[in-house]
Amino acid sequence: MTTTWSVRFTVPAAQDLMPEIKVRQTDKGNHLLLEWNAIPHARAYFLGSMGALPNEGEMGMVIWTSSEQPDTGFGLTDYQTNPAVDRWLGEKVLLAPSTTRCTVPKGVFPKEGGGMLRMIAYGNELNLVHPPRPADPKVPWEPVWATKVRVKSVAMAMLG
């Protein structure tokens, strides 16, 4: 016997596709100003850049992030859960959703080059299950399907 069922659900606007991040750079002399468009329903932002640094004939690597914590943030440019985003906002690892600018100090990257900038805007995670959990905990609950929707908007650009 084959059982056939369809899965139908609605994704609210807060969890739908996020718009493109448009990052602009302005050289301010002693720093590089990064500005971007506010993304509706963004929970937080993270920016990170990596570049080469010549050092007496050898090459080194420079990593800059928008975080106030000393971390490379390599794993932060992927999907994250709502609780993780909330925790990292509180720890100042991520930028608040109202933020639309930050600065990169001059001298982080050499004049003849720059860094590759990666940026992410985290969206809201949505978890759906059918049928919904009964309000009465004594009623047996047998979910037929469950889905998780995570959205983000990302941008990449060369600094400098």
Whole-number mean pLDDT: 88
* Major sheet characteristics: 4 strands, antiparallel
The run of helices and strands is EEEEHEEEEE
| Shape category | elongated
Give a summary of the structure in a few sentences.
The chain has 160 residues and is mainly beta. The protein has one helix at residues 82-90, and strands at residues 23-27, 31-36, 44-55, 58-65, 101-105, 115-122, 126-130, 145-149, 152-158.
Core attributes:
mainly beta; 160 residues; 3-stranded antiparallel β-sheet; 1 helix; 38% strand; 9 strands
SSE diagram, text form:
Blueprint: E1 23-27, E2 31-36, E3 44-55, E4 58-65, H1 82-90, E5 101-105, E6 115-122, E7 126-130, E8 145-149, E9 152-158
Antiparallel strand pairs: 1-2, 2-5, 3-4, 3-6, 6-9, 7-8
Q: What does this molecule look like?
A:
The protein is mainly beta. Helix content is 6%, strand content 38%. The chain contains one helix and nine strands, in the order ββββαβββββ. It has a four-stranded antiparallel β-sheet. A three-stranded antiparallel β-sheet has the order 1-2-5, with no helix packed on it. A hairpin with a 2-residue loop joins β3 and β4. The model has no long low-confidence stretch (mean pLDDT 88).
